[in-house]
Amino acid sequence: MFNDIYDVIVVGAGHAGSEAAAAAANMGSKTLLITMNLQNIAQMSCNPAMGGIAKGQIVREIDAMGGYSGIVSDTSAIQFKMLNKSKGPAMWSPRVQSDRMRFAEDWRLMLEKTPNLDFYQEMVSGLLMNKNKVIGVKTSLGVEIQSKTVVLTNGTFLNGLIHIGDKNFGGGRAGERAATGITEQLVNLGFDSGRMKTGTPPRVDGRSLDYSKMIEQPGDKNPEKFSYLDITKPLEHQRSCHMTYTSPEVHDLLREGFDRSPMFNGRIKSLGPRYCPSIEDKINRFADKNRHQLFIEPEGWKTCEVYVNGFSTSLPEDVQFKALKSVVGFENVKFFRPGYAIEYDYFPPTQLRHTLETKLVDGLYFAGQINGTTGYEEAASQGLMAGINASLKVQEKEAFTLKRDEAYIGVLIDDLITKGTEEPYRMFTSRAEYRTLLRQDNADLRLTPKAYDLGLASEKRLRRMEEKHNAAEKFVNFFADTSVKPEEANPVLESKGSALVKQSDKMFKIFSRPNITIDDVRKFGAVEQYIQENNLDNEVIEQAEIQVKYSGYISKEKNNADKLSRLEYVKIPANFDYSQIKSMSYEAREKLKKIQPTTVSQASRISGVSPNDISVLLVYMGR
Fold first, then answer.
1. Can you tell me the distance from the alpha carbon of 133 to that of 365, in angstroms, rounded to the nearest whole number?
2. Three-state secondary structure call for residue 163
3. Please, what is the angle between helix 459-481 and helix 443-454, to 10°?
4. Integer Cα distance of 30 and 115 in angstroms
5. Which of 163, 184, 285, 502 has its CA 20 to 30 A from that of 11?
6. DSSP H helix total and E strand total for the chain
């Protein structure tokens, strides 16, 4: 049935698996994507949206690396918003509301057009092993498929258990069975495993809601898009979301079901995402709050199904329904499906290398929720990196990793590998110490050259990025070299309450003032003339504005990154014996022995390893 030996087998076709399969295949590896249901490729299991705080930066990075998430997010979007626009550009985060059905369809069609990629619908129940090396997979029907590498992206399916009130049943997602066999084999191979929890809210019939009682949440007036490629276009029409609130009455009705809640009666023992708590958890933890926001999100252009964001719950169906009917605008609500919680197996990510290859099994990679993360974007980025490195391993080429000052993807993976996680990991801008460098607007400048070297980005994409870079740089130089007279500058400065100038001054200096925007300086005739003559688009104009207004912050952060990155080049020998360093703390020796960092910089970020321990290590290594 499968006579060929594949280069890469990807198990699971969620966001991680889809990106992993696309990356490996696009790099020339003969790839097989195995999933339990080919109709559910890249399914949006939870909310119908991509991006958001820090997550939007990740989607831009995936796109810059030649991944598909940004393109599909654009083609299936029904609304676009740039979040945090009132803050500095390091915080700007793009987000789209998606058409759930079109998202999955577009993903599948893109994968089907990808050369070197085969598909197979079956449940993988185990790995084929030769000593400590993976050589393929075995399915529940006993089919054995050989491969040189395997990427596991099992999501919430490993021994998944769904909870609704006092009922529970096996499943990886509502209506789909759980995957069994893999956890048990991995544990027997020496892996540590754990359990995590996530949840989802009820879906309701939008025709039964009264939107006139809610607050409309429209998209941006001038929407942008995710992909840097010109094959997608910004939205011309958008669908609005809406906002409403819970109330003390709603909270009281929910509390009536707490004795039947698996969250509180001990049925669920694992930890859920701290920053996306269930509605019952919010009421219990924040008892002083008499209301919580609910965002009413349409699931597509044409469907009437609606996602109730903020009402994630595992309470009994009757309690969910009764409480939701008391929410303003939901008085006549009809349910499509109730909310539920799901527990599933994961493997602490300290058992991985920065390539996402496991330390115990050669050629085996983990990506997505199997590593303890939550969110489509976090999963997709890991899938991309696992697919890249599985392909590089087969091609016997040097592994590819991203550092913390190069990408949010680098921050995510480094956090997982060096610190581990005991609760579902979610990316935030605050996790990145170099977030001024890692903006959503410059992901292509940071990563497209790397993607081109890997064979993931076309020459056309690279040239487009270079043109943007050069045009923005020339525009910045224009501001640095061009002066503006007081009679032209002062009317603008006065209107913004900014100090007037008494003599001609460089535009760069005036533009650098905190309250002066690109719209202000475009009132200077020379600026608008330059834009028109050079046919500058919004991307270039925005890039130049950021470079001018935040040049000081960017330079300072780059210098800090350069100083700290020196330790990234101080390699620690493989299988280094930390037990011989008696002057190092016991905790540090144990942590370093377990995680086996490859550089001193990585070692310094491990929880429990102090600066003094690093100093001792450097002395011992003769540095």
1. 11
2. strand
3. 150
4. 9
5. 163
6. 21, 22
Q: What share of the chain has pLDDT > 70, as a percent?
A: 100
Average pLDDT over residues 492-520: 92
Question: Smallest Cα–Cα separation from 599: which of 556, 557, 563, 565?
Answer: 565
- 225, 190, 221: which is closest to 75 by C-alpha? 225
Phi, psi of 147, deg, nearest 5: -160, 165
Would you state the structure tokens that stand for residue 324, as one six-digit string? 């939701």
What is the model's pLDDT at position 623? 58
User: 3-state SS of 254-278?
Assistant: HHCCHHHCCCCCCCCCCECCCCCCC
Separation in Å, CA 552 to CA 38, 253, 479, 511: 50, 54, 15, 13
Residue listed under structure tokens 């046919």: 535
> Which amino acid appears at position 361 of this protein?
V
Alpha-carbon distance 620 to 389, whole Å? 32
Tokens encoding 567: 């330790």
Find the mean pLDDT for residues 471-491: 95
Separation of alpha carbons 515 and 498, rounded Å: 8
pLDDT in tens, 36-65: 999 999 999 999 999 999 999 999 999 999
Residue 10, φ and ψ in degrees, nearest 5: -105, 125
Beta strands 144-152 and 6-11: pairing type? parallel
How far is it, in rounded angstroms, from Cα 219 to Cα 82? 9
Amino acid at 453: D
Q: Which residue has the tokens 């198990």?
A: 11
> If you search the block for the tokens 């997709």, which residue do you land on?
380
Least confident of 160-174, 188-202, 403-417: 160-174
Tokens encoding 366: 């983990």
- For the chain, the average pLDDT equals 94
